[in-house]
């Protein structure tokens, strides 16, 4: 099982690319696609879901071109888009039966699958309640259930935790981890903690270009010895931000505890600390922005 993306570009205007020469190869496991809003994540997800076509480049699913033969992938694809719509007057069972019919699943097999999935996403007790009364996290779990109806080999989830409270976000990430197994899962988000908690590989993207692709622990080595922490007075913070990449600020009784990414010590009292994935992400995105 393999998804191969080669030199993929999507041009919207003469001078604007949603994706530019993007290449990536994925195998089973959870890959986090991490980038700011407008980075090109949703453009890539819609191409992989065979909704949009690229301007150039190829996407191969097990060596089959999905632009030329989209049904090859659609048969084994599960997709939870960023703007997932529901029918508020339907309950979960009715909605999933409707989605199963759209996907062409046999009705008897679909009913068995729906029973299984309601257990998986922990919605058995709420299965007969109208979806309009569901919380944000419950609606997302229904979204995952509909994406899993055909037991997909490729599962794409686009910004799934936006609008969820912290407890719901943790529950959703745990669900994705439980589902990974023998399938490729692409988790697209701008929230570092989501990919840090769930992904075995992380792809950083900005302005339609791939910045990094590695395991989380490998990404952390990029900033070994380059993250510093100390306390300054609040009035020094604006000047510090002009001179350095400040990746974190915490208010303390004796001032502002700042976290700075720098090749060398930015102040005599600065202490070198272990890097975080957020430090790496902010450094990569800021460098890409500075190069444009």
Automatic annotation (TrEMBL):
It comes from the Bacteria. PROSITE patterns: ABC_TRANSPORTER_1, ABC_TRANSPORTER_2. Residues 3-232 form the ABC transporter domain. It holds the Pfam family ABC_tran. Keywords: ATP-binding, Nucleotide-binding, Transport. One of its GO terms (molecular function) is ATP binding. Gene3D superfamilies: P-loop containing nucleotide triphosphate hydrolases (3.40.50.300). Belongs to the ABC transporter superfamily. This is ABC transporter ATP-binding protein. It comes from Levilinea saccharolytica.
């Amino acid at each position: 099982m393999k998804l191969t993306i080669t030199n993929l570009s999507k041009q919207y205007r003469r001078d604007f690319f949603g994706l530019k020469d993007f290449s990536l190869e994925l195998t089973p496991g959870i890959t986090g696609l991490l980038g700011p809003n407008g980075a090109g994540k949703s453009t890539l997800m819609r191409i992989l879901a065979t909704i949009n076509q690229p301007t150039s480049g190829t996407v191969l699913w097990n060596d089959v071109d999905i632009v030329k033969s989209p049904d090859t992938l659609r048969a084994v694809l599960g997709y939870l888009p960023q703007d997932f719509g529901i029918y508020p007057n339907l309950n979960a069972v009715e909605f999933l039966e409707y989605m199963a019919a759209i996907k062409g699943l046999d009705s008897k097999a679909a009913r068995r699958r729906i029973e299984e999935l309601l257990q998986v996403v922990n919605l058995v007790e709420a299965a007969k309640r109208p979806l309009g009364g569901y919380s944000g996290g419950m609606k997302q779990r229904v979204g995952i259930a509909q994406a899993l109806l055909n037991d997909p080999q490729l599962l794409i989830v686009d910004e799934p935790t936006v609008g969820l409270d912290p407890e719901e976000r943790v529950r959703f990430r745990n669900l994705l981890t439980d589902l990974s197994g023998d399938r490729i899962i692409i988790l697209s988000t701008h929230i570092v903690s989501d990919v840090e908690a769930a992904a075995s590989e992380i792809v950083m993207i900005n302005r339609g270009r791939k910045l990094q692709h590695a395991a989380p622990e490998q990404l952390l080595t990029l900033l070994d010895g380059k993250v510093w922490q100390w306390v300054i007075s609040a009035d020094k913070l604006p000047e510090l931000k002009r001179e350095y990449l400040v990746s974190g600020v915490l208010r303390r009784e004796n001032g502002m505890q700042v976290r700075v990414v720098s090749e060398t010590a930015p102040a005599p009292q600065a202490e070198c600390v272990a890097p975080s994935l957020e430090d790496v992400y902010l450094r990569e995105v800021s460098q890409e922005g500075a190069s444009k």
